[in-house]
Structure formats: C-alpha cells, structure tokens
# Entry
Amino acid sequence: MSSSSLESHRIAVIGAGSWGTALGAWLANNGHTVRIWDVDQKIIEDINHHHQNSQYFKDIELPNGLQGCNTLESAIESCSAVVVAVPSRVFHLAVNSVSDHLHLMDSGTKPIVIWGTKGFDSETGDLLSEVTARILKDRATTATIAGPSFAYEVIRGMPTGFHLASTNAEDIESVANMFRNKTSLVYTTDDIVGVQVGGATKNVIAIAAGIADGLGFGTNTRALLITRGFAEMNRLNVALGGRTETLMGLSGMGDLLLTCSGDLSRNRRLGLGLGSGKQLDSILEEIGQEVEGLQSARETYHVGKKLDVFMPMTERVYRILYEQLPPMQAAMELLAIGPSIPDRNR
Ligand SMILES: NC(=O)c1ccc[n+]([C@@H]2O[C@H](COP(=O)([O-])OP(=O)(O)OC[C@H]3O[C@@H](n4cnc5c(N)ncnc54)[C@H](O)[C@@H]3O)[C@@H](O)[C@H]2O)c1
# Structure
C-alpha cells in the first residue's frame, strides 16, 4: 500500500448517524469517494436529495463526494476501505454484514476495515477488535479511530486529534493518511487495546461527572471524579493488556476530559438529569438520541467484575442506572470508601 496522503480511495461508511456522517464528510473533503449506508433509508434519501442529514446536522451542507446508498452491497462494491460507525450494540451485526460482502470490495488490495464505534461487544463483553478478529480473521487489515471528537465539531472542520490503532504495522500510516488533513491530527499506535478501553469506559465516568454536577457539587468534585475515574479506567486497561501511556493520550484522557466537561455529550447530559432528580425514561426522551453510556456502564461493570478489577465509580453508576441506587447515596458510599484502597496512588 502506498503511504501518500494524496492517494484517493473509494471508501464505504456503514452507519449515517452523527459519527458516520461526520466521518463520511471528513473523508469526502479529503478527496476520497465515499458511499454511506444506513438501515434508516430516510437519512440516505436526505443525503442524496438535499445534501444534508437533517436528523443530526440541520445546518450542514454535505460534500458532493459523499453519496448515499440504498444497500450495503452497493456501498461496499469496489471500495478499498470500509468504516463502521454504528452503535456498539449492533457492531457485531454490521461487521458480519461487511464480512459477507468482503468479496465485492476492490480485489486489487487487501480490504481495510476501520471502526469509529466505541464500546464493548454487547453480547460477550469482548473488545470490538476481538469481534472483528473473530469475524474477519485475517481477510482484512483492521484499525480503529478514536479520540476527543464530537461529531458536531468534526463536521465543522474544527481542529481535532485522534489515535488510529492497528496491529497491522506495515499498513498503519497509509490508513492514517486517509484521515489526515490540515485540521485533523492522527497519531498512530499498535496499542489497539488501550485505545479501545479509553473509548469504551470514558462514558461511564462522564455519567458520574454529570451526576455530580446535577447534585450541585462543584468543579473540585468533577476534577476528583475525572482523576479517580481515570485510575479505575486504567486498572481495567492494564488488566486487559493495554498500556497506561496510551490511556494517558487522546483516546483515553483526551476523550475523558471532553466527555466529562462538554455539554454536547449525551452521557454527561444523562448524568446531569439523574443528579438533578429526573427519571431515566424522561431524560432519555429529552435527549432523543441513543445514549451509549447506558450500555457501556453495564458492559464495563461486568468486564471489571469478571477480571476482579476494583472499579467503585463504575459500580455506583451501574447501580444508579440498573438498581435504582439514589445518586446522593452513591456519592456518600464513594466518599466512605476514601483513599484507603491498596492502589490509592495510582
Ligand atoms: N457522535 C459522536 O460525536 C461520536 C464521536 C466519536 C465516536 N462515536 C461513536 O460512534 C458510534 C456511533 O455513534 P453515533 O453518535 O453516530 O450514533 P447515532 O445514534 O447518532 O447513529 C447511529 C446510526 O447507526 C444506524 N444503524 C443502527 N444499526 C445499524 C446497522 N446494523 N447497520 C447500519 N446502520 C445502523 C442508525 O440508524 C443510526 O443512523 C458510537 O459507538 C459512538 O460512541 C460517536
């Protein structure tokens, strides 16, 4: 594969929600030919007839190089790369569909499958790299892109930084070059575990930070939660085989800071609602879009429990969401645990 950043690819994007649309527009603006597909055909019609995705971005005109497709087959045909941007609960379904149609892709090169989805597999609790490895085996070069990146800002071309992780060392720079441009910094790493753990767990801490703000606590408390939240994210990261230095980078600490402090975060907004005494159903109705942290909290809690990792904040967020633990009681319980844990300095 050539490593020229000017090389133009045919790329399919699976999922035309916030992130898929932002990724598709970004790649099309980089000069690639991009075809996007979604199970929701209303979005595809909107993209093709009005050059917009009014469900997610009312005021954005999408580039001509981004074309909607009515079927996954037509999106994927002759492409050299596929970017999956669906919620984690359906990730395995999307990758299975991609796998079934891999033979339609450009036969001149090894297919590239990249995912922007963050989270654990909803059925097994596996990392998404384990899902892709199981389904695709060695038939594709695989990579994931993650970082502090609200779709709302990426689609407006605001400067943003990312980690692109792949264990395919010889292809990683070429894949990163598909995304690089004047405003997008893409750092490469082979630590695919560390990059994914950051993206999968930061939502849980963002819910906790939102709850604290909703309870009326201040910025001291938020900083406490972010710092101790990072510590428990990293205990899980290390237990899964990821590197601490990766988690300290864009896809870990970077994304954690963004999600815990930016009001564009659906997870933070969920926490704010819970902390201020609203019922879960009414908060979700108010947000009106899928809040992935709800599932991340359950998955992260179970993965941590399976590996016997001490994750007191994740456990409290899980119990608030699934066992009706009152938020103030959760805060009191966390304070009562105090710093008397064996790894308090980490
Ligand atoms: N929104 C962001 O700012 C952002 C940024 C970075 C990463 N992400 C990650 O990207 C993933 C998607 O998030 P989002 O915000 O775009 O979600 P979203 O709810 O905005 O959109 C998801 C889209 O996926 C479609 N979809 C569902 N099942 C599908 C399937 N089987 N095949 C094809 N399409 C399907 C839905 O119709 C919907 O249009 C998540 O894992 C999220 O963590 C989001």
Q: What stands out?
A: Residues 194-337 form a domain with the N-(1-d-carboxylethyl)-l-norvaline Dehydrogenase; domain 2 fold (CATH 1.10.1040.10). Strands lie at 10-14, 33-37, 66-68, 81-84, 112-115, 141-146, 160-165, 184-189. The two ends are 41 Å apart (CA to CA).
